[in-house]
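Holo prediction. Input below; ligand is heme C.
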Amino acid sequence: MNLPAWLRFVELSMLAAWLAWRFYRPWLAGRRQALVPLLAALLAMAQLLLEAQAATDPFTGLLQVLPVVAASPYGGLSVAVFVLGVAAAACMWRLRKPEELARVSAAVLLVCSGAATAGAADAVSAAASTGEIAMSPTLAVPRSATTTPNPYANDPASAQRGAQVYQQYCVTCHGLNGDGNGPAVAGLRIKPPSFRNPQHFLAPGMDGAHYWVIQHGDGVPGGMPAWQGTLTDQQIWDALNYVKQLAAR
Ligand code: HEC
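Structure of the complex:
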């Protein structure tokens, strides 16, 4: 089990125990038990942040992913648990005998967190696969592309083969040294990026996304063409590994 799943487990057990004790025994009686809904609220928020963090990538930060996750039923319920938990804790702290409120809060929080738990896995995999990564203002890549592994990541011969592909098909726009100033650039609507940008092209876990771009292009006339069909899958990986070599220089 991963950390968010453990947090959910702890939260649900804690709320269930609280509800049971509220009916049968005077445990933690009085306002001190305001700590329980507060803790439940914090656990719900910690889960949401950890799950959203798992759906980020080097070009899409947490702040861009959070609204997507928060808009899902799982995210909405987690936010509700947070708000209700904090509100219940605040009210209990002010009451001298918060027994009734404690029972209602425990029951409501338990139901909401249970429902959120049920939807968590779906919401997170959806956030991780539906979103798009903005590589440039005109270039959006499906996030699911990042899961394609680079089959030649540890094969030095791949970049060597890629140099030939690059000189034949890419150099007119991207330039011999990858600076984006090839002879054909004057006729383009969109300026090719410089490959001499290790932060962008060597970002961990992004090979699949760059591969997707070479396959599909940016879909803009006068932009990056699609190479699927013209080049084989291996040639595309080879070209990408050569681009990464240019970026590393
Ligand atoms: C007709 C000109 C042209 C040719 C030929 C061309 N590109 Fe591009 N390429 C572009 C432009 C323009 C962009 C910028 C696209 C954008 O931002 O919309 C680009 C962007 C890219 C990117 C950046 C994508 C990212 O991940 O940020 C890569 C990688 C790339 N090209 C690889 C190649 C490879 C490999 C070839 C040869 C097989 C090639 N290009 C051939 C014009 C070209």
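The pocket of heme C is lined by residues 135-136, 138-139, 169-170, 172-174, 184, 188, 190, 192-193, 210, 213-214, 218, 220, 223-225, 227, 239, 243 (CB under 6 Å). That is the main takeaway for now.
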